[in-house]
Write a structure and sequence with these properties.
The complex is a heterodimer of chains A (about 300) and B (about 350). Chain A is an alpha/beta fold and about 300 residues long. Helices cover about 40% and strands about 25% of the residues of chain A. Chain A has eleven helices and twelve strands. The C terminus of chain B is likely disordered. Classes of the chains: A alpha/beta (about 300), B mainly alpha (about 350). The interface between A and B is medium-sized, with 32 and 30 residues. Bound molecules: adenosine-5'-diphosphate and magnesium ion.
Amino acid sequence: MSQITKTHDPIVAVKNIGKRYGAINALAGVTTEVRAGEVTCVLGDNGAGKSTFIKMLAGAHTPSEGEMLLDGEPVTFSSPRAALDAGIATVYQDLAVVPLMPVWRNFFLGSELTKGAGPFRRLDVKRMKTITYTELDNMGIDLRDVDQPIGTLSGGERQCVAIARAVYFGARVLILDEPTAALGVKQSGVVLRYIARARDRGLGVVFITHNPHHAYPVGDRFLLLNRGTSLGDYAKADITLGELTSLMAGGAELDSLAHELERSMGADSPVVKELEREAEALPEAAREELVPPTAS
Amino acid sequence: MTTTDIVTIATRPRMERQPIRRLLARPEMGALVAALAVMIFFSVYTSNFMTLAGAGVWLESASTFGIMAVAVALLMIGGEFDLSAGVMTGFTALIVGVLTTNYGLNIWVAVVVSLAVALGVGALNGFIVMRTGLPSFIVTLGTFFVLAGIDLAVTKLITGQVSIQGMAKVPFYDTIQPLFGASIRIGGGVFYVSVLWWFLVTAIATWVLLRARAGNWIFAVGGALNSSRQVGVPIMKTKVGLFMTTAGAAWLVGMISLFRTSTVQANTGVGQEFIYIICAVVGGCLLTGGFGSAIGAALGALIYGMVFQGITFAQWDTNWLRTFLGAMLLLAVLLNHWVRTRAGGGR
Ligand SMILES: Nc1ncnc2c1ncn2[C@@H]1O[C@H](COP(=O)(O)OP(=O)(O)O)[C@@H](O)[C@H]1O
Ligand SMILES: [Mg+2]
């Protein structure tokens, strides 16, 4: 991890932030921060409120409660554009690409380079193609043809194009919504490598996932969400992968799972032993405030 | 857009590395082949189709449909329809007719007023579609009927007839007529200025689609609206702009038909909105948006013009035109589908 780019002050900090959709309380009481050169992981099961959380950071939704600080100053983003202008770029689950359009057009979509003036202002096609090619090359993606529709790329490649795009456009904070959710093991590894690369370039990364094994190797800080509430916000030094996994699975649930398996597999089974160990390792405070997770 | 569409079109470029196949995968390729076939057929089958006189007739016929088909193609690439496009051509001409013959308004002013009203209706179409999220098919069907009713009722109320007469006697008529209705004789053929308008509109639309930011946005909003919004494409501006462009093109066609004939019927343009859509689809536009070409739509209109006049030259019953158009549309859709699946399978 690069220590050079680390600063003491967070780029973005949120304090007790929350969001209601009408009567539905999607998220409440979330506190965390994002620092340059660090990866803040947001973990939680389906419906935990992860997407809701990042939509507030990204300016797609305004928080119903709590405070958001950018470089220490309170901010509210009125639109995704406003968040973008503040240097907060988001790669959504659907990647925000247009499948039928060429890679280079997708790379610059919404921020096209032009030349000429007035009515003769036109796309600088050559420059955009060259930049797209070199930027992807810098990220270690070798595309022979930036003219091919982005729909022809694999899921991992598309993720990487989206990340490269955000990096190129000078993002200070990069938000990734479940970039590895739909990917196989190998492709996930590729994407994790680009996350590390973006971090090493000094970006603050917000990495959303429900997989602690993806989060732990790249993460510096872990925010755990469960059914719209925060289970805690841990620095890497304060939590182990085992604890993270247990918290994710939910301590109570883990206990009952161990009992269930005991019947079918025998109490001496190594799986059951491990589950019991993990349930015990769970921080006591976290276990108390734990709500049974949704069945999803 | 269906997944198959995305997959099949997205897989095209794998074969596009070979120049000939790259050419074959262009959206307007089918229309080009069909246009040549139609042209050759009528040239051989009738004696006066491939003469200057004949060409003047079918080019004129294609020109007004071409202007509209190109605008409608842009709108379709942007993911929307405009069923009020046909009636709008009559509506704009009637505004000029009524304002000048009945209220004595200066003809230049009337023409500008007509354009402003058209753009206003186009913007309204766009705003309603974007604000409510309703399908443009339904919204513009509403506008279509509202305008069609106004055309008939107001024309009858004010003039007591169902058409505007006496346009040619309006002061300064001659100063503006050449702009939209001029013609020149070349050999035995009469060629109208509308053909130049058609070429100009096609050229500008092609340039915008492929070389301007707006073109990027048009493909984007039609291909994936939500993604476009997320990366900061001004989707409202783009879509409303497209509806206004279609209305503006309808105004141009309205002026062309008004100043070529110096009269306008209250039901002018009704029913033609579907022909514009057919021309655009024959030209390679996807009904689901995000894919197509302006040149293709212009070729679609050329086919329409050639068949329309070719049937007359061949002295067939002109009622067959519609049957032909329908068959043409089916063929185009099937051909597009076939090319796309072939492209997908040929990796
Ligand atoms: N636009 C919305 N309107 C109403 N409820 C919503 C909306 N978006 C999310 N929710 C609800 O908020 C909760 C959290 O959802 P979400 O943030 O998408 O979870 P995650 O991304 O962690 O799976 C869910 O119960 C979901 O149904
Ligand atoms: Mg989600």
